[in-house]
Amino acid sequence: MAVGFPQFKPSSMENILSSLSPTSVGLTQDELKKIAANKSVEFVKSGMVVGLGTDSTATHAVDKIGELLHQGKLKNIVGIPTSKTTHDQAVSLGIPLSDLDSHPVIDLAIDGADEVDPGLAVPVEVVPVCWKFTANRFPDLFKDCGCVAKLRTCYEKHNGNCIIDLYFKKDIGDMEVASNRILRLIAGVVEHGMFLDMATTVIIVGKLGVTIKNK
A GO term (biological process) for this protein (predicted)? Predict the structure, then answer.
């Protein structure tokens, strides 16, 4: 899930996304996620303030950062966790943590990406109270695009909130406009998974190996 930092200029923070190619063969999905995560950690340098994402790929990245700190290969890292789950994991690994109040400027953020194709589903995080009512609002909001809202899960990893995946039969058009409609017009929405003007690098692991795409 993307975390918005409106006070940041895009050029002031590097956001690394890790994704998997559906054509990957020979390795399990978790092994591929670990490869992508470890590659993303290569961008982390000593002394950085690092945003720590929340998903199965980001979990591997946090593990790797903890390992490198323990080995002395990284020093003076400050992590900014995006959920209680990530916070607890980082604490268990001895990663020093802070928050945006104390460190409002992040050098680099690492998170997983479900897709890097704008034509695929858009994940939306919503509060669990009346999540069905909230989910039913999206098809009306995007009725011209043939929107279908499906519950992915409700779990503690995202601070106890639910993830609703939005599928569109037609192009939703301007992503900034769609983002504002999701965030401003429906009560109960916490955030969405569109990394607009945030991600600078995408790491994709597939049958051809590791591909790095820069903005």
Answer: pentose-phosphate shunt, non-oxidative branch
Q: Where are the beta strands (DSSP E) in the chain?
A: 14-20, 49-52, 78-81, 108-112, 122-126, 147-154, 162-168, 189-192, 199-206, 209-214
Which positions are catalytic? Answer: 125
68: part of which helix (H) or strand (E)? helix 56-71
Spell out the SS3 assignment of 138-198.
Answer: HHHHCHHHCEEEEEEEECHHHCCCEEEEEEECCCCCCHHHHHHHHHHHCCCEEEECCCCCC
65 with 158, same domain: the answer is: no
pLDDT in tens, 111-169: 887 666 656 678 899 998 889 999 999 999 998 889 999 998 876 555 678 889 999 88
Provide the residue range defining the domain that includes 133: 122-192
Distances 204 to 38, 87, 89 between C-alpha atoms, Å: 12, 26, 24
- DSSP character at residue 97: B
DSSP state of 80: E
Say whether both 157 and 94 belong to one domain.
Answer: no
How far is 32 from 192, CA to CA, in rounded Å?
Answer: 24
Looking at residue 131, what DSSP letter applies?
A: H
Say if residue 103 is in the same domain as residue 60: yes
